[in-house]
Amino acid sequence: MNYLSTRGKAPQKRFSDILLGGLMEDGGLSLPATYPQVSDAELTAMRAMNYRELAFAILSKFADDIPADDLRDIVERTYTAEVYCNGRPDSDAAQITPLRKLDDTLFLQELSNGPTLAFKDMAMQLLGNLFEYVLAKRGETINILGATSGDTGSAAEYAMRGKQGVKVFMLSPHNAMSGFQRAQMYSLQDANIFNIAVRGMFDDAQDIVKAVSNDLVFKAKYKIGAVNSINWGRVVAQVIYYFKGYLAATASNDQQVSFAVPSGNFGNICAGHIARMMGLPIRRLILATNENDVLDEFFRTGAYVPRKTADVHVTSSPSMDISKASNFERFVFDLVGRDPNVVRELWKAVDTGGSFDLSATPYFPRMDEFGFVSGRSSHADRLATIRSVYKEHGLMIDTHTADGLKVALQHRERDVPTIVLETALPAKFEETIIEALGEKPWRPASMQDIESLPQRVEVMGIDAQAVKDYIVRNV
Ligand SMILES: *Cc1c(COP(=O)(O)O)cnc(C)c1O
Fold first, then answer.
1. How far is the CA of 475 from the centre of ligand 1 (A)?
2. Are residues 271 and 228 located together in one domain of the fold?
3. Which of 130, 148, 303, 353 has the fewest CB atoms within 10 Å, counting from its CB?
4. Same domain assignment for residues 251 and 338
């Protein structure tokens, strides 16, 4: 399996080579040169597999430069009931991503039972083990530098804690995350985890990461890497649970299902698109945004208009508060018939602060072939959805999952099973749950008093040099 760049000007690479990197050399994103296919017989065989066997069957199609026994071992260590048992007390941990039935054809797929209570653990836990493996093989080390507004940073830290050859330097906005999110990250005492709170907003932290990464001499000397949402290993790990959800909701391969996906950077739903391209019988991919509706606008009108950072709404589903969607280029590459010249042209505009509009092109009508539909949700929708699910099913869902469910109900077809991907547990967004329901969400026992644990964090100004100096002192 070779990987190409969506911009067509970089040499093709193997899985292990793109795993540790970010963008391809030409600024594009990596994709398989052709999508591996899943035959009817394979899909039937998958019906008898547990999550680990399924993960191996799918990953071995993409990571064929890792010996099968090694890959199997990595997968066996990653997707265990011990790692994915932190969620709801009655969830079926052995299933890893159990389906919960809301009515005859409406399901919730639990993806938030990992250590940080958000779906990002599904991919990040695998990435931690893959990184450790590839680095050891090559005798290399990596210093992961990132910025987080909450979920990504904690998922990365819990995945990388104690890993050989890996250090994590995670920037977060000082006093801008929830107390729970702060406690999750800052209470980690592992020697390879470094939390830096920047006296500013998320974008200030992000700008520092960019400034440090753009210093190519520093980047090479200190082996700076990233685990942001364009990381191919993360995308491919997310493909697995689309298969798992499909197989759990159907009894035979001639049935189709639709997935509803709360979306921000288009990473999660991109994995659904890839599963569909592999031949998984997915009818619709229902994309849900919050008030930051740049993606909903595209799928309705054909115009992709990234917002100015200052225009990003601060919402009660904050992990979807984005100005542009970093993985979107992967889908557009397929939409324009995999022509890198077209992608380069379109992103020439995007990369210089502009936009593009496909409505008058032959590509826009093709959108149907890819199964995408979309919708948006608001704070009021979120509260109403959280209330009605609680009332009808006695189930508390988080604000992002509520966005997904709201848009799913708008697009569902009664005779097609529709699976809403649960992207976080309500405990992470306590304030809005209290606003909606007047009571506190349930928490795993291990996190009952997490806010009172000792915290380890370095507070800094908005100063890239200070961050560099800190990295130099600690690598
Ligand atoms: C990251 C995140 C999302 C958005 O996922 P993308 O892959 O960026 O589209 C949605 N909900 C939650 C809770 C998240 O953490």
1. 30
2. no
3. 353
4. yes
Spacing, Cα 323 to ligand 1 middle (Å): 14
| pLDDT computed for residue 88 by the predictor | 66
Write the DSSP string, 207-253. Answer: HHHHHHHH-HHHHHHTTEE---TT-HHHHHHHHHHHHHHHHHH-SST
Question: In this structure, what token pair is assigned to residue 435?
Answer: 């606003």
Name which of 113-117, 199-203, 241-245, 388-392 the model is least confident about.
Answer: 199-203
Shortest-distance Cα residue to atom 8 of ligand 1: 265
> How many Å apart are CA 162 and CA 70, to the nearest integer?
20
Residue 324 a catalytic site member: no
Among residues 120, 163, 406, 468, which one is catalytic? Answer: 120
CA 450, 423, 94, 74 torsion-angle sign: negative
The answer to whether residue 420 scores a pLDDT higher than 80 is yes
Number of domains in the chain: 2
Q: Are strands 257-262 and 193-198 parallel, antiparallel or unpaired?
A: unpaired
User: Each residue of 274-305: pLDDT tens digit?
Assistant: 999 999 999 999 999 999 999 999 999 999 99
Domain-embedded: residue 246? yes
In the reported structure, the alpha carbon of residue 389 is separated from the centroid of ligand 1 by a whole-number distance in angstroms of 21
- Is the CB of 319 inside a 6 Å radius of any atom of ligand 1? yes
pTM of structure:
0.96
Helices (H), 161-201: 179-186
Same domain, 209 and 324: no
Looking at the fold, whether 126 and 249 belong to one and the same domain comes out as no
Residue 105's CATH number: 3.40.50.1100
* Range(s) of the domain holding residue 50: 3-82+118-232+456-474
Average pLDDT estimate for 145-172 = 93
Is the beta carbon of 120 within 6 A of some atom in ligand 1? yes
Query: What pLDDT does residue 158 have?
Result: 96
| Closest to 114 measured CA to CA, from 70, 75, 172, 159 | 159
Residue among 215, 274, 290, 219 nearest 241 (CA): 274
